[in-house]
Amino acid sequence: MPIQHPHTVMIPSSSLPVGPIGIFDSGYGGLTILDKIRELMPEYEYIYLGDSARCPYGPRSFEVVYEFTLQAVNKLFGLECPLVILACNTASAKALRTIQQVNLPTIDSTRRVLGVIRPTAECIGNITHSKHIGILATAGTIKSQSYPMEIRKFFPELSVTGEACPLWVPLVENNEYRSEGADYFIKQHINRLLNKDPLIDTIILGCTHYPLLLDKIRQYTPGHIRIIAQGEYVARSLRNYLDRHPDMDMRCKKNGNCRFLTTESESKFKESAALFLGCQDIKVESITLE
Ligand code: DGL
């Protein structure tokens, strides 16, 4: 049954239009999430939208991240997406709740917007032994306290410590993440996090760009610490959501296609997609958000 809002009329889900699942990120990082989602659910149709022209979102204010994210959601709704995943922790931390509670009821109460913080928060207590968790994320995500708040809803006994890594996204977006210079900043933030709490045994990569840095992150993290990238958790959580909401599942087109939209140039997106997804031959369209 679709959730009923007081100001809306119930429409049977069979008469609602079908469309692709929208995946949004401030740039290329969300491609790490899209990749895992498509691996698990290849039969669905997707539109990926990356706002690379305005990336990074991490240092931006709540107001600006909310405004940019809402523009992206509206764009994806305009392209018939019944369901949009904010594959960006910064947008999930700063904009998701307002969009769900304030905007969706007036835009279209039959559509859904989901984020990437909850899927990892729901599982993390089953992974740690020491009950001490570390979060590496953008300044915006750390400042929002979204991870400690979400994790404590499920596992109130956990101790959660965050470390903002403001240069990591620019290293990835500018394709400098394999350079020697990157090592300095990666090591620095891991050391700072572990100095704050030496009992940490599990680190969440709370930014969708960070899986690209995984090799170097592993290199500077003691071997007993588990490093959790979000992709697989988000993919499993989406599968589970669609199983629990067959009305929404019916509205998600299934033809295996994927379209890519960027606010940057098409050629720049293709270059990065080759790095993030290892694929050369994708169709990209450059768009503007307003
Ligand atoms: N990839 C995004 C995240 O997960 C944001 C990076 C940014 O725009 O700062 O937080």
N→C terminal distance? 33 Å
Bin the helical content.
Answer: 40-55%
Cα shape? globular
| Overall tally of domains | 2
- Which cofactors or ions or other ligands sit in this model? D-glutamic acid
Helix count from the secondary structure assignment = 13
Q: What is the number of beta strands?
A: 10
At CATH's second level, what is the architecture of the largest domain? 3-Layer(aba) Sandwich
For the sheet with most strands, the description reads:
6 strands, parallel
CATH topology of the largest domain: Rossmann fold
User: What is the typical, i.e. mean, pLDDT?
Assistant: 92
Stretches where pLDDT is under 50 for at least 5 consecutive residues are: 1-8
Output the radius of gyration. Answer: 19 Å
